[in-house]
Amino acid sequence: MTRFVTPLLRGIIVILGLAALALGAGLPLVARDIAEAAPEFETIRLPYVAAAEAALACVLIALLALWILLGRVRRDRIFSPASLRWVDAIISAATAATAMTGLVFAHQMLAPVPGIGPAAWPLLLLVLAGIGFVLTMLVMRRLLVTAVGLRTDLDGVI
Amino acid sequence: MAIVVDIDVMLARRGMSVGEFAAAVGITPANVAVLKNGRAKAVRFTTLDAICRVLGCEVGDVLRHVPDDTAAS
């Protein structure tokens, strides 16, 4: 990678991380305001906020793993078995976040709170995007496994 | 390992130490040890070229094929 790419990517990770933290802090407050203005949302307030916070936590975990993987690329340690652990962390976090979003969406479809209806559909887009991301990451993981094997073989050549 | 690497005789003939040999060939002394005790899985032709040049010998002088004794016929 060129000199610019790593700091740039790290900057983006920091920005995304701060955004996630800001969302995580602001969400419970916004939810409380909404529930006060429209009491029919009170029953779903805590579970939905909890699910959203959990999903944001997954995002932060994935961002941390990405940061570490970037560091490994920089030190040319990326093609070693330890990197796989961090890739697995990203895949697990993405799967968990997607599953949670899916559960919230399914709940809205099956037990809708009156008035929310159309607002649930963006969740479906998020679930589809999440599934796509996880599948892409699985392919990338396979690539990394192959690369690690090739690197190990090459390192054994005298 | 069916390919045996014999550099000790050549080293003794040249009066060269393992360290000098490793430096001249451009590999680490650790890799020299790996070569000698049959744990090497692959050698570059450029390394072989350097070995033959440094020891002043032929490839067949340092490499021997000893077929594995397997039960299957």
TrEMBL record, chain A:
Keyword annotations: Membrane, Transmembrane, Transmembrane helix
Protein name, entry field: Integral membrane protein
InterPro entries: DUF2975
Transmembrane residue ranges: 48-70, 82-107, 119-140
TrEMBL record, chain B:
Annotated ranges, domain HTH cro/C1-type: 13-62
Organism ancestry: Bacteria, Bacillati, Actinomycetota, Actinomycetes, Micrococcales
Database matches in PROSITE patterns: HTH_CROC1
Name listed for the protein in its UniProt record: Transcriptional regulator, Cro/CI family
UniProt cross-references to PANTHER family, sorted A to Z: DNA-BINDING PROTEIN (PTHR37301:SF1), DNA-BINDING PROTEIN-RELATED (PTHR37301)
Highest taxon above the source species: Bacteria
GO MF entries: DNA binding
